[in-house]
Design brief:
The chain has 105 residues and is an alpha/beta fold. It is built from four helices and five strands, in the order βαβαβαββα.
Length: 105
């Protein structure tokens, strides 16, 4: 399940073993398109293995700045709180799954 996090929820969860954060904006057409792919990727994963969340850059501008988000969507993959990979813009399901696989190893 994909959750929308605020800054405190991000801080509480980012140190989990595997986390994917989708930085998005409500007005962003490509973000809406990518949400469907994220839902497909999430459906194939165990929620205990990886957490997938989205963060609205307009509600959490400090987090967006902290991770140098200049374009949406931006996908940041964390392993134990450390950034492993960042993907910017529209991505394929294969690209998302490959990055997810790497943080779950």
């Amino acid at each position: 399940m994909i959750q929308e996090w605020n800054e405190s929820e991000f801080q509480a969860n980012v140190n989990s073993p595997a986390v994917l954060v989708d930085f998005f904006a409500v007005w962003c057409g490509p973000c809406k398109m990518m949400m469907k792919l994220l839902e497909k990727a999430a459906a194939d994963l165990d929620e205990q293995t990886v957490k997938i969340a989205k963060i609205d850059i307009e509600k959490c501008p400090e987090l967006a700045a902290q991770f140098d988000v200049r374009t949406v969507p931006t996908f940041v993959f964390f392993k134990n709180g450390e950034v492993q990979t960042t993907l910017i813009g529209v991505q394929s399901l294969n690209a998302l799954n490959e990055a997810l696989r790497k943080i779950m190893e």
